[in-house]
Write a structure and sequence with these properties.
Length: 363
């Protein structure tokens, strides 16, 4: 054996020892999670909340801040997310609804936020997700709300007008679209399936490379992949997970027109999220239809130095040309300055609803 081989063996032995130590520490953490569940149950609360989004967000931020490499902050946070997911499942597995079928970007966002140890349930529509969570059949739901290139998903916002559910978290997912098919080359594609948002996000690439193919919008990219897998002349725009599930070839990678294309998802549930230290608050507001009304409505935010990160308007469905505003601001509703601003906003609004305060996306 050469000196080099001896050095390699020493490193491998060190890795084996570290693996065993990791196993011991992870098992210790899991036993602590079980103790937490027992203590919560013994406390006799009317409704025990095993999942604490503010706690998980704080843990992930602390891990990223303490990380010195060589693994990236994102990779390290992803590993710890899976450990927390597995430990939480020992307390009580969560049931989470997402927009199906298997292989959608909403499923990827669900796994990114909750880890692989939750029980996921596929839903046919965004409305179904809201109904399942409202009925208590699922603990949480994950719904798309906006895309960086195509804007807001209006149906999601409309459902918040009548739903009692709270926003308890957000997920930002980098969206990479691939051209998938059973066919060997793009020239043979006659019909292309995808969600209407994905077709729009890849419009430039499709005009250049697939001008001959009929574009058909379907309910989800996973549904597009399923159809492409069963039709001889078809293709789909979808993610890599859909390619694996439906055994499709990737004919072209990353065909989105904007390389930074990102979709934001909201986690919805019945519980409020306590403050984590880095939070957002989402509001649903309406003002009287008169000159300067919107300016007056938003004035309390400026007066209390509250930063607004997003504003969207939607028809209120109460009266013709009557609108409501969906607003995201920095801070938690329990923060002193924001709490004071919200009190003034409520007085100035004809409709006032706090959709939720929740941790800013960590991963």
């Amino acid at each position: 054996m050469t000196t080099g081989d001896g050095g390699l063996d020493a490193v491998r032995q060190r890795i084996d020892a570290i693996d065993l130590e990791l196993l011991r520490l992870i098992s210790d953490r899991a036993r602590c999670a079980q103790q937490v569940a027992q203590l919560k149950t013994e406390a006799g609360a009317a409704q025990v909340q095993f999942y604490r989004p503010e706690r998980e967000a704080a843990v992930l931020r602390r891990i990223k801040a303490a990380n010195t490499g060589p693994l990236s902050d994102e990779e390290m946070a992803r590993l710890f997310r899976e450990i927390m997911s597995a430990c939480l499942a020992l307390e009580r597995p969560l049931n989470v609804a997402f927009l199906g079928p298997e292989g959608t970007f909403t499923q990827a966002a669900t796994i990114k936020h909750f880890g692989h140890s939750v029980v996921t349930r596929t839903m046919a529509t965004i409305s179904d997700i809201f109904r399942e969570v409202e009925a208590g059949a699922c603990d949480f739901g994950v719904v798309p709300v906006e895309n960086s290139t195509e804007g807001v998903i209006s149906h999601t916002l409309d459902l918040f007008m009548t739903s009692p559910l709270r926003i308890t978290g957000e997920v930002c997912l980098r969206v990479q679209h691939h051209l998938l098919s059973r066919l060997p080359a793009p020239a043979e594609i006659r019909v292309l399936y995808s969600h209407q948002q994905s077709l729009a996000q890849c419009r430039g690439w499709l005009d250049r490379h697939l001008p001959h193919a009929e574009r058909v919008a379907v309910a989800s990219n996973a549904e597009a992949a399923r159809r492409a897998a069963h039709e001889s002349n078809a293709a789909a725009i979808a993610g890599i997970q859909a390619a694996e599930i439906y055994a499709l070839k990737i004919l072209a990678e990353r065909i989105e027109d904007e390389p930074g294309n990102t979709t934001r998802f909201l986690v919805i549930g019945n519980q409020d999220a306590p403050a984590s230290g880095q939070d957002k608050t989402s509001l649903l507001l309406s003002c009287r239809n008169q000159a300067g009304a919107l300016h007056q409505l938003l004035a309390p935010l400026a007066a209390h130095s509250i930063s607004m990160t997003r504003i969207e308007s939607r028809p209120s469905r109460r009266d013709i040309w009557d609108y409501v505003f969906f607003i995201d601001v920095v801070g938690h509703r329990e923060d002193s300055a924001l709490n004071s601003a919200l009190a003034h906003l409520e007085q100035a609004s004809s409709l006032f609803k706090i959709l939720g305060s929740y941790p800013v996306a960590v991963l």
